[in-house]
């Protein structure tokens, strides 16, 4: 059973990494979670949107969730992160105490311990290559035929599905004793022009400092 993305859980994970922005392009990803217990049309099945620039900038948007009264938006410009409820226009300001200020965006937010924390959105292929991935026969995802890589990390079996035309990820799948689910990429771009205004808190939002 997947832990559906929580902004608080996801960006509580601030840890050192070794990557830096090398150009003026952003990663932009639209994705959703797929599992047997996630109902189509539910908030859990909705599409999330992520913008990322290097290890310091991130913006994550969720769909409105009327059941909880939360319309989640997270903006990070390390070391500062802002958890924003767009319903109430109130932001919780969190400051990373350091000493390093790198945003970690895990593909699987349910895996909070071990190596799988290092499997990040926008850096999937590098993680598989660094962890002994082996090729499997091609498989289709939606209408796209994909190359497949499989790896065993800690106690989990994971697979990466790469679109054979675009070479971009289409899906990442995980199975272990706790859960089995997939992250399906609806859109995946690595060449979006940099727009730093995306990482600014809206002017009409009231900011409160987290304890």
Structure description:
By secondary structure, this protein is mainly beta. The chain has 2 helices and 12 strands. The longest helix is centred in the middle third of the chain and has 7 residues, at 124-130. The two termini are 31 Å apart.
Chain-averaged pLDDT: 88
Q: Name the poorly predicted regions.
A: 1-5, 8-21
Structural class: mainly beta
Order of helices and strands: HEEEEEEHEEEEEE
- The counted number of beta strands is 12
Query: Strand-residue fraction?
Result: over 45%
- Helix share bin: under 10%
Number of helical segments with 4 or more residues: 2
What's the Cα radius of gyration?
17 Å
What is the global morphology?
globular
Q: What topology, given as strand order, has the largest sheet?
A: 7-8-9-10-11-1-2-3-4-5-6-12
Major sheet, described briefly?
Answer: 12 strands, mixed
CA-CA gap between termini: 31 Å
Index terms:
211 residues, mainly beta, twelve-stranded mixed beta sheet, 2 helices, 5% helix, globular, disordered N terminus
Topology:
Elements: H1 7-10, E1 25-34, E2 48-53, E3 57-65, E4 70-77, E5 80-85, E6 90-95, H2 124-130, E7 134-141, E8 144-153, E9 156-163, E10 169-175, E11 180-193, E12 206-209
Parallel strand pairs: 6-12
Antiparallel strand pairs: 1-2, 1-11, 2-3, 3-4, 4-5, 5-6, 7-8, 8-9, 9-10, 10-11
The gist of it:
With 211 residues, the protein is mainly beta. It contains two helices and twelve strands, in the order H-E-E-E-E-E-E-H-E-E-E-E-E-E.
């Amino acid at each position: 059973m997947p832990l559906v993305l929580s902004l608080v859980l996801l960006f509580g994970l601030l840890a050192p990494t070794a990557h830096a922005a090398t150009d003026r392009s952003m990663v932009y990803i639209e994705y959703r979670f797929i599992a047997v217990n996630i109902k189509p049309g539910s908030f859990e099945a909705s599409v999330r949107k992520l913008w990322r620039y290097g290890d310091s900038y991130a913006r994550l948007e969720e769909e409105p969730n009327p059941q909880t009264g939360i319309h989640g938006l997270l903006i990070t410009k390390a070391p500062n992160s802002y958890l924003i409820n767009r319903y109430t226009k109130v932001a919780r300001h969190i400051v990373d105490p350091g000493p390093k200020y790198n945003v970690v965006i895990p593909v699987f937010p349910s895996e909070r311990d071990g190596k799988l924390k290092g499997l990040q959105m926008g850096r999937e292929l590098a993680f598989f290559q660094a962890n002994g991935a082996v090729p499997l026969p091609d498989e289709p995802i939606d209408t796209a035929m994909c190359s497949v890589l499989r790896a065993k990390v800690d106690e989990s079996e994971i697979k990466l599905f790469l679109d054979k035309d675009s070479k971009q990820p289409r899906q990442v799948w995980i199975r272990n004793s706790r859960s089995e689910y997939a992250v399906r990429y609806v859109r995946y771009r690595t060449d979006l022009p940099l727009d730093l205004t995306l990482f600014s808190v809206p002017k009409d939002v009231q900011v409160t400092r987290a304890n």
